[in-house]
Design brief:
By secondary structure, the chain is mainly alpha-helical. Helices cover 61% and strands 5% of the residues. The protein is globular and about 55 Å long.
Length: 176
């Protein structure tokens, strides 16, 4: 483990006292995304291309998790905005498990998706979080707030899985 990985001098985003002109629920979603970005930066930025695509013990790869986070946020925000998925989004969904792309390109997609998501979340500033929305081909019921909270939960779940896989890969690297 590197020195950078051992210490995190800043408190988590929700404890930094940053004031947003947003409802608390939206701030919590943004804080979760910021924490995810920092954790991925701490654990996944020094992986090789082979490591990013590796599936130790048949676990999903770090690359999959980062792509899935990026692309699922886009899909979930599309539903929260009251829209249906387009062909680009459906195509991106099908390629999430692909074992290609450099670590740099995958991390850039991840980072760009977080920036895009933050701007889109800000757009919900004056929207009722109780507005009904539907999800997927089956038009399952949700709300704007339900979708936004799920973005935070889902992102954190996959960040944790990516970090666990990265830690395993780093341990394997250190034992070679």
């Amino acid at each position: 483990m590197t020195e950078k990985q051992q210490s995190n001098p800043k408190p988590e985003p929700w404890l930094r006292g940053v004031v947003y002109d947003l409802p608390a629920a939206l701030v919590a979603v943004l804080d979760a995304l910021q924490l995810g970005a920092e954790d991925i930066g701490r654990w996944c930025t020094n992986l090789s291309e082979a490591e990013v695509h590796a599936r130790p013990s048949s676990l999903p790869s770090v690359g999959f998790h980062l792509r899935h986070i990026a692309r699922s946020m886009d899909r979930l925000l599309t539903y929260a905005e009251g829209n249906r998925l387009n062909e680009r989004q459906l195509g991106a969904l099908k390629s999430e498990k692909d074992s290609n792309g450099s670590p740099k390109s995958i991390l850039e997609e991840f980072q760009a998706s977080l920036e895009d998501a933050a701007a889109r979340i800000y757009a919900f500033k004056s929207v009722s979080l109780e507005l009904p929305r539907t999800v997927g081909r089956q038009s399952l019921p949700s709300t704007v707030g339900g979708l936004l909270v799920h973005i935070a939960d889902h992102t954190q779940r996959h960040v944790g899985q990516a970090i666990t896989t990265a830690k395993l890969l780093l341990a394997l690297r250190n034992h070679e």
